Amino acid sequence: MSSTDLPETLAAAVAPAPRVGAVRVADGEELRSVSLPGLTLNIRARPNQRSGLEPSLFVHGLGGSSQNWSALMPLLDDRLDCEAVDLPGFGDSAPPDDGDYSVTGHARAVIRLLDSAGRGPVHLFGNSLGGAVATRVAAVRPDLVRTLILVSPALPELRAQRTAWPTALLAVPGVASLFTRMTKDWTAEDRTRGVMALCYGDPGKVSPEAFRAAVEEMERRLRLPYFWDAMARSARGVVDAYTLGGQHGLWRQAERVLAPTLLVYGGRDQLVGFRMARRAAAAFRGSRLLTLPDAGHVAMMEYPEVVAQAFRDLVDDCGNRS
């Protein structure tokens, strides 16, 4: 099955993205850039001296980056060849030449990356927007996915939580520029505290060092001229994906996923409703469900040890069945 199963959009040339500051690299990590037709993607990897490890790819959520997986990857690098991608327009990846920030566009980027490297099938991890992207990849290219691990995946909800409304409003044309003007006096510290209050079950558990690193990354992102455009267009892409029906609907595609699946939901998630856990468990055939009552939207950052063990249990169980 080829990646052309996802519809293409017309490409439009844009100016090269500027380099703004240095991206944080944790101990044991390396960054590299991968150039593909219409895309330049930043990859965060943990080089390992062991051979024969199964490949994995980690996909972040809206407004995030590959750094969102830096707490989890070290806990799995004895078992996996770990790589995390910055989606187009996020982290240190340039905007896509065609300006396509839809869920399909991001999924196409992941597929092209995996096809170009010949790394499939991978253990595919996704959080939030990345969970929707990973679901679409697993549905249309099952040959690329060994297992699927979804942390608070952004799958359609009929009644979104009130706390998620501001994020959804970014999809409305003009709102991002209005929000930029309204918050022009906010400091990077203010913005970072706001994001952590929204995404963490208990922001108070974030260490001072981790907070400083997050502030530095926020400062870097705000200097990118395309930051708000990437946020707004990707938010619009999520909303558009929620309205799709038929075979392109995300819930229908969830039912098509063949890979063993682990679902992780946080009881304090303000962006993806905890009530969606049961529906997801029913949609993904034979899936495992891990619920963390005190976790927020980014359980892999709040409880990386628990998520890592759940993944190991999934893989061990799959091995015992084979």
UniProtKB/TrEMBL annotation:
Record GO terms (molecular function): hydrolase activity
Domain AB hydrolase-1: 57-302
One Pfam family cited in the UniProt record for this chain: Abhydrolase_1
Gene3D superfamilies: alpha/beta hydrolase
Keyword line: Hydrolase
Claim: Hydrolase is one of the keywords in the record: yes
Keyword Cell division set for record: no
Domain of life: Bacteria
InterPro entries given in the database record: AB_hydrolase_1, AB_hydrolase_fold, AB_hydrolase_sf
PANTHER family per the UniProt record, alphabetical: MONOACYLGLYCEROL LIPASE (PTHR43798), MONOACYLGLYCEROL LIPASE ABHD6 (PTHR43798:SF5)
Entry protein name: Alpha/beta fold hydrolase
